Amino acid sequence: MQRSAIVKSLSLASVVLSLMGVGAPSALAATTTPAVNQTASTVPVKPTTPPANYGDIHKTLVPLAGTVNTRDLGGYTTADGKWQVRSHSLLRSDQLVGLTAEDIQKLTTDFKITSVIDLRTPGQVKGKPDKALPGAKNTNISVLGPHAYTDSGSDGEFYNQRLAFGHPAVVGYHKFLNMVLANPQATLYHCTSGKDRTGIATVLLLSIMGVSRNTIIADYMQSNQVGKKVERAWLMEYYKEVLQNYGSMEAYITECLEFSPAQQEQLRAKLLVSTDGKNTPYPAAQKPVVPGNNTGNSGNGGAGNVTNDNHQNDNSGTNQNDGTNTPNNVTSGGQAAQPSKPTNTNGGTHKPGKKKVVKIVSTKKMRTTYKYRLKGNKVWFKDAHLQKTKGHTPKHSKKKWQLIKQEKVKINGKAATYFQVKDRAGHKAWLVKSAILNFK
């Protein structure tokens, strides 16, 4: 009886102490992290302790009162350890709506930012416009197009469908890379939280620099340390699709984003210095002289000095003076360019100087519910009739594609049949008839 009374007294005392906030925390309190306020006007979130595999965000974080995820890419080393990204040359960030006067002073004086690239949608920009940086040009490039909605089944598919192969992303990241190359000073780029759209932009830049994939993944994951959730699986799904479709990040950047190998070399020369303490600039590549090919200077800091291989005569409507040409391999309908009725033009697989006569004999839209299995390692094209190679189907293709269009084309009088196919993530490509196996 006495023992029962003691237990009841202890229980009541425990309840009282809990109500007073005294004593050991509950399991819920121990496992729940403070919610992150998404507004930039509040006190910045202090970075959490880094996971062992992803490094310390303190090494790259730029402390600002009005942002929580502004980081300097300076110091990241190439895979061979010989070169590193210049400090104070590339800043990734979340939105700049909450910048204070001190923040603005720091970015303009210490970092000398002369170009701000805003990757948000027009509606996001209008709702929370950036605070202006004196002397810096602000450019909006929405890599998600007009809206930031997600129309896929998972975050990983969102990365593929919208950020890897979506038309606004292909065009937007093409322009983004050219702008970074053309800017002689430091560039700051950002989206809303500085993790997804900005994360992929960083993947592209660091890939071009020759930074190892593990380091790139670690940088991507560090957004978690300031309360901006990302998952490794999202980025790995992005890598998987890019590598399946193009074989390498370099090929994806070269062929899909149409940022040429020569431009990539120029960007390395602009952004890399030696790691031996001497800060020796990365050697600029010698510009090859091609007989009969006038590449000329376009006044864009080198971005326009190189023509895209085998695309000189495409009707792309590009402006060679601003270094932000739209890739020729995409249209608003998706990843692959839709066929049109072209005039005589140079293709990508014939000898220079010869004309290719192309005639579309017939076009048929397919509304079938059948799915089509593609043969592995078959060439696919940017468009049906000019046969500019875009990539290859996976070597051991197990994907099912939907057939959406058929075209009969005559090229120099020789007839051929092409099919446009689409996978479940919305990626489109043209293939010759022999590359497709169909089944119900």
Automatic annotation (TrEMBL):
<dbReference type="GO" id="GO:0004725">
    <property type="term" value="F:protein tyrosine phosphatase activity"/>
</dbReference>
<feature type="compositionally biased region" description="Polar residues">
    <location>
        <begin position="309"/>
        <end position="348"/>
    </location>
</feature>
<feature type="signal peptide">
    <location>
        <begin position="1"/>
        <end position="29"/>
    </location>
</feature>
<keyword id="KW-0732">Signal</keyword>
<dbReference type="InterPro" id="IPR029021">
    <property type="entry name" value="Prot-tyrosine_phosphatase-like"/>
</dbReference>
<feature type="region of interest" description="Disordered">
    <location>
        <begin position="278"/>
        <end position="356"/>
    </location>
</feature>
<dbReference type="InterPro" id="IPR026893">
    <property type="entry name" value="Tyr/Ser_Pase_IphP-type"/>
</dbReference>
<protein>
    <submittedName>
        <fullName>Tyrosine-protein phosphatase</fullName>
        <ecNumber>3.1.3.48</ecNumber>
    </submittedName>
</protein>
<dbReference type="Pfam" id="PF13350">
    <property type="entry name" value="Y_phosphatase3"/>
</dbReference>
<keyword id="KW-0378">Hydrolase</keyword>
<comment type="similarity">
    <text>Belongs to the protein-tyrosine phosphatase family.</text>
</comment>
